[in-house]
Amino acid sequence: MAKESLCLRVPRTSGEKAIAWTRTLGIFDQILEILKENGSICVPVTRKPSGDEVAALKAQVPEFQLAMRVFQEKERREKTLAEALETRLSPHLLASLPRALDIVGDIAIVEIPRELEPHKHAVGEAILRTHGNLRVVLAKAGAVSGTYRLRELDFLAGERRTATVHKEYGASFYVDVAKAYFSPRLSHEHQRVASLVRKGETVVDLFAGVGPFAVLIAKKDPDAKVYAIDINAEAVELLKQNIRFNRVENRAQAILGDARQVVSEKLAGAADRVIMNLPEKAGEFVDVACNALKPAGGTVHFYGFIRLPETLDALKQRFSEAVEEAGRKVADFTYAKAVRATAPYEWQAVLDAGVR
Asked: Where are the beta strands (DSSP E) in the chain?
């Protein structure tokens, strides 16, 4: 059914931000389909934003316009997994349904509790019914492990594939979740770090994967120079595609190899900023990051794990000691935060450190 509604009309490149901010403000109309027209996206809203809301929107999406358009209503779907499965599962099994999904492009990756294992395909089908934007549902079949940080995945429902296109903050990434590590839960971190890069900096990403940090940085700053390293050949092929697809070939370079060897041979003393997103082993490469920094120093974004009763201060101490062993010194920590839970009583944390 068609319905006329007020909307925010924005350039397609700003569509993701507009949707996110209308959701934040509580005015996104979830009943209507988003409309695409002439290089723009029309995001339906439930009411006219207030003066303060308009100011907040303009700060994020300066080009938006308020307009009236005719939208199609979405096909009705069950609102929750429990609603979709209430006739198939007992109440105690409904209580065990997963409450979070990792969504990469149009692929959902879910953790299935042991008691739901016999019903996992029904759960997968229900996820597709409750999320109209998804086409594939996979289940975690093991922990992230190995040099390439991969995990086993089981097919549950939808199209039988593991490759997709994932979008973040105006950038698009070819991702194959079976061949290269990628975490949508770090979306905010990708954007946060990219926003900190100053004009003309040289950035070395030691464990780049498919390039979520590197590509966003290169898109943001046309004067940046980004060296993106990874040891996984499959990841580097995807990284090269992403560099081309986002048109940043002139400022982002994909390098296949071990970060220690690449920095030693090609990038010693080159970087204003180093990214170390390999929490399992980043502590073993602090000396590599120090070697990559310019003689005067720079910034290191270090990602590691903290497990209770350990604290962020303990992680800072470990990092500082490793920097001193490498012949440098931490001048200050400008940011330190647990960014996501990875297991019971375990978090991935980030330290932004000024190193001299």
From this structure: 2-11, 35-37, 40-44, 65-72, 102-104, 107-110, 136-140, 153-158, 163-168, 171-176, 202-205, 225-230, 252-256, 273-276, 298-307, 330-343, 346-355
pLDDT tens per residue across span 85-133: 988 889 999 999 998 899 999 999 999 999 999 999 999 999 998 998 8
**Interatomic CA distance for residues 246 and 241, integer angstroms:** 8
| CA neighbor of 206 nearest in space, from 271, 297, 145, 296 | 271
* pLDDT tens digits along 254-300: 999 999 999 999 999 999 999 999 999 999 999 999 999 999 999 99
pLDDT for 325: 97
Give the pLDDT confidence score for residue 76 in this predicted structure: 59
Residues 105 and 175: beta-carbon distance below 8 Å: yes
Average pLDDT over residues 30-52: 90
254: nearest Cα among 291, 218, 200: 218
Cα angle 5, 11, 15; round to 5: 70
Domain ranges of the chain: 2-72, 81-161, 183-355
**Best CA proximity match to 201, nearest among 273, 297, 274, 266:** 273
Q: Among 17, 15, 5, 14, which Cα is nearest to 47's?
A: 5
Q: 2-72: which CATH number, 3.40.50.150, 1.10.150.20, 3.30.70.2580, 3.30.930.10? A: 3.30.70.2580
Q: Which residue has the tokens 């940046």?
A: 224
DSSP label at residue 208 = -
Beta bridge partner(s), residue 300: 274, 353
